[in-house]
Every structure is written in C-alpha cells, then in structure tokens.
Design goal:
Elements (H helix, E strand, L loop, with lengths): L2 H7 L4 H29 L5 H12 L2 H11 L3 H26 L1 H20 L11 H21 L29 H29 L1 H8 L52 E6 L6 E4 H5 L4 E8 L10 E10 H7 L13 E6 L4 E5 H4 L6 E6 L2 E2 L9 E3 L13 E7 L22 E6 L9 E10 L5 E8 L5 E2 L1 E2 L9 E9 L2 E11 L21 E7 L1
Length: 543
C-alpha cells in the first residue's frame, strides 16, 4: 500500500494532530537552524529571516514604516524579526497538522517557504547572486525532509501487532502496544534527535557567523585616529546648561539614535574596504582605501544630525563630534563641479554595503559647509551601528538625503535620472532640516510643585543657527527663553526658562526662530515627505 493511500485511510485524531503540529514546528526550527551555517558560509545577510525581513521592509508603505519607528523606536527591527518568526511558527504548526493526513502536501509547503526565501534573497539590492539563495533552499529541504519523516511515524500502519494488542495487521490502528496505530517510539526518537541536532547545527552556524565578523572587529580595534589638521573649537563652557533633565550637549555614542533598514548591522573590515567615486562630470574615477582617507588631512566638527522620521518633540536627533575628510575636496580632485559652476551632475548617490541608496544635492555638499566622509565619532572610530568604517555627514540635511552609513560607492548623476531608495517610497528628493525645538523638562504629565519650575530643552536649525526660543504657558503671551551659548550654527542650542508655576493643569508650548528670521511654524505636518512641522507642547499638573 502506498504512503498516500495509507494516509487517506488513517483518520488523524486530536493527539496526532497536535503531534503533527509539533512536527511542523520542529521542521521550521530545523530549516532555520540548517540555514545558519550555510549563511555563515555565504554571508550573514543571506539568512532567511534577514532576507525576508529586508524584503518586508522594502515592500512596506512609508506611512507604516513611519508608524513603526514612532511606536517601537530603535527596536523596530527586533519587533519585525519577532513578528516574522511568529508568523513562520504559526504556518509551520498548520503545515504539520496538515501533513498528518497529507504528508507530501505538508512537505511541499515547507519547500514553498524556501522558494519565497530564495526569491527574497535574489531580489535584495545587495544580493551577490545565486549563492544568497542557498541558505533558504538548503534549510527548506532539511525542514521538508524532517516533516515527511516525522509525520510518517504518525501515520505508520500495517506493522504486525504485538501479542495481545487485539488489532489486525494491516488495518488502521495496528502498531505498537498502546500506540493507537502509530510508531510512538520511532516518532519520539526521530523528534528528539532532530531537535538536538538542529540546536547543535544552529549554534555552530551562529558561532561561524560571529567568527566572520572578527576581522572587522579587529580592524576597528587597530584604528588610531590621527590628530585632526583642523580640530573643532572647544565647546563653550556656557553651551551646556546645568538643568536636570535636559539633553546633554554632546550625545554619547551609546545614546545616539539609530534609524536604518539594516536587520543585521554590517561589520565591514576596514583593511579590505574600498570607496569608489564615479559618474557624470568627472575627469577620472577614483578609488580610496580606509588608509588613504586616514592619511589625508582630517577635520573635526560638532554637528547635530536629525532623522526625518523624528516627530515634533521626538528623540531622533543627536549631537556628536565627527572626525573625517572633506567630501568636497575629494569631489573637486576628481573634477566635479557643482551645478552653480556648470557641473552636469546635481545629485550625489551614495550606496551602502547593504544596498541602501541615498541621494544628496551636489550643490549642498560643495557649498562650503562641513560635509564629511566621517571616520570618527566623539573621539573614537565610528561604532559599527553608526557606519564603521566610513559614513557621510552633511550638516543641514535630514539623514535620509545625506547620512549614508557603511558607504562604499558614490555616483554623480542627476535627480531626473535616478530616484534613491526613499524617494521611490514617497519621500522628498530634497530635505533641509526644519527649524524645530523640544521641551525636555518637565516631562509630559509631570506633577511639579508650585513655585519656580525650570522649563528647558533644545532647539536646532542646522546650517542656519538658532536665534531665539520662546515659551508659552497655556494661552498666555510668548516669553523669551534664555539661550545657552552657541557652539556652531551646525549644532543644537540648549535653552531654559524659569516658570512661576501655580496649581492646576497647564500646557507648555515652545517655538524657535532661526538666524534667517524664520519662525518655527505652528502648522502640524507629518514626517512624510520632508519632515514633521509644528510646535512641541507638554501638559503638566502643578500640585
């Protein structure tokens, strides 16, 4: 009797359905575990969860991405991966239960997920070709085979019955004593063996993945940043206010925001890293190594960066001391001229090792501002999560049009000829940072005591500078706040206002005016397409 014919004769009961579902879960676990060492051999970014997650991010509407960043912050990638694993688990459970009755259909379902993973891997912007599909394919084959074997134990019939079992050989229900017609001993042995073997294989794969990054970690550890030829001026002593609860003037690396699409932080070996600059209006194509950049004159600047996904009053803004090479100097050496001087390229497209593309106006990069290829952050080599070995930093532009991390390629082109990653998803081509301010203290819904309450926060308008900050209590008049000393026009400024608080509920609102005379607008706008607008307010209750 063929397997499929016997399977149709054996009507699965509740316990066997549950064990079938367990078989599906084990098959899914095995598929992911086997994929680990294969991905370690190919490259860590080719793992099934990573490629499917990346494809999911690419296909997600901009508004949904913005919602995820707003609600989950820098944990959005972890939430996505957990969500993918949860969905895979549910589908694996369903396929396992299905396979109790139809073994081949269940196994084919597991193979189908391998096809999905392979298609996602092949379609990634940073795909290296067919090799990237191997983790998904090999993992799916292992999972499908295991599911077929395990559910075969659950549908085993036709074995001679044991003495006294009371069943007829060859009929449903025949099998080991008390087994109800299925091979309990064989199932338990196969399931436990597969689980143990998968755990070992998965752990070995993770260990191999970790070892692959050791060269990158070692290369970063060996970097010694030379003394910059153009050091940053000391931060004025009065630039940092001594107000409890206000953001520190310099954001530590560990607390600097991170918003990107990389589910796995690229760990790039600085000794093998190369940057290629090419495109329209260039006399020559240039390639630089990390040591090439390190050997040039370095400049050091304090620059505040802002993410376009930052809501009014949001946390995705930070100030750091960056060390790097002037990008405009490298471009000029290659013969690049800005459009205002007759250059044919008006867009610089930066490409990351993970396939991200970010477009910046050539005019802005070459207008004299401190646009950098940064190698250092706050006195140390860039952390991996912030772009080691090299990233772009352009004061006055939102990160999605300037701050390419893990950069490996710069192409000179035009805005008409090419739409970078975020532009294809509905964001603006050009996005200067908007004039914004934020109340850091008191926090929303705080309950300060009546009397003098210090209201304080930060304001920013990079490359223009902050001229004035005002605070309003409820519907009262605007009161000018005290501004801390300015470091540079490319950094944020702290501000404070002593408020004589009286009991009751109050709304505190802040607005800023930049050096061009532009007052922060009160019109609330979404982050899409070019940054949020509006005044930041907090509600407090004074006791």
């Amino acid at each position: 009797m063929r397997d499929e014919e016997r399977d149709r004769r054996v009507r699965p009961g509740g316990p066997r359905l549950a064990l079938g579902a367990l078989s599906g879960a084990l098959a899914g676990f095995t598929a992911l575990a086997v994929a680990e060492p294969v991905a370690a051999w190919v490259r860590p970014q080719s793992g099934p969860v990573i490629v499917v997650g990346g494809a999911s991010i690419d296909a997600t509407p901009a508004a949904v991405k913005d919602w995820a960043i707003r609600h989950f912050g820098t944990d959005d990638k972890l939430v996505l991966q957990l969500g993918i694993l949860a969905v895979l688990t549910l589908l694996a459970l369903a396929l396992g239960a299905l396979a109790v009755r139809w073994r081949r259909v269940g196994a084919a379902g597991v193979l189908l997920f391998g096809v999905v993973g392979a298609a996602a891997a092949a379609g990634r912007p940073d795909s290296t070709g067919v090799a990237d599909t191997l983790p998904s394919v090999v993992g799916a084959l292992a999972g499908a085979l295991l599911l077929y074997v395990l559910t075969g134990r659950l549908t085993a019939a036709g074995r001679p019955t044991a003495p006294g079992n009371g069943t007829v050989p060859g009929e449903p229900g025949a099998g080991l004593p008390g087994s109800g017609g299925w091979d309990r001993r064989g199932f338990v042995l196969a399931a436990t063996s597969a689980a143990a073997a998968s755990a070992v294989v998965g752990a070995a794969g993770r260990s191999l993945n970790a070892s692959r990054g050791q060269n990158a970690v070692a290369s970063r550890a060996e970097v010694v940043l030379p003394r910059p030829g153009s050091p940053a001026q000391p931060v004025p002593g009065r630039a940092a206010l001594r107000v409890p609860g206000i953001s520190p003037f310099t954001t530590p690396n560990s607390g600097f925001y991170r918003v990107d699409t990389a589910l796995v932080v690229p760990e790039v070996d600085a000794t093998t890293w190369r940057l290629r600059i090419h495109g329209k209006g260039m006399r020559r194509t240039a390639t630089y190594s990390f040591d090439d950049l390190l050997g040039r004159e370095l400049i050091e600047r304090d620059i505040t960066l802002t993410c376009v996904s930052n809501e009014v009053g949001g946390p995705y803004v930070g100030n750091a001391r960056w060390t790097g090479v002037r990008l405009a100097d490298l471009l000029a050496e290659c013969g690049v001229r800005p459009p205002s001087r007759g250059g044919p390229a008006d867009q610089l497209v930066a490409r990351s090792v993970d396939g991200m593309t970010i477009g910046s106006p050539v005019e802005d990069v070459m207008d004299g501002r401190d646009a950098l290829l940064a190698l250092g952050m706050n006195g140390e080599p860039l952390p991996f999560e912030h772009g080691f070995p090299v990233r772009m930093v352009v004061p006055g532009l939102y990160g999605f049009v300037s701050a390419c991390k893990w950069i490996e390629d710069i192409e000179l082109t035009t805005f008409d000829a090419y739409d970078p990653y975020w532009v294809r998803r509905g964001w603006a081509r050009r996005a200067p940072v908007k004039t914004q301010s934020r109340i850091d203290t008191p926090k929303p819904f705080a309950r300060p005591k009546a009397g003098t309450v210090m209201v304080a926060g930060v304001a920013w308008a990079q490359h223009r500078g902050i001229d004035k900050v005002e605070v309003r209590v409820d519907d009262g008049p605007w009161q000018e706040a005290h501004l801390a000393a300015e470091d540079t026009r490319d950094t944020w400024r702290q501000w404070s206002l002593p408020w004589q608080a009286i009991p009751g509920s109050h709304t505190l609102t802040v607005r800023a005016t930049d050096r061009t005379g532009t007052v922060q607008t009160d019109r609330r706008t979404r982050t899409i397409p070019d940054g949020a607008g509006g005044w930041h307010s907090v509600v407090v209750t004074v006791d």
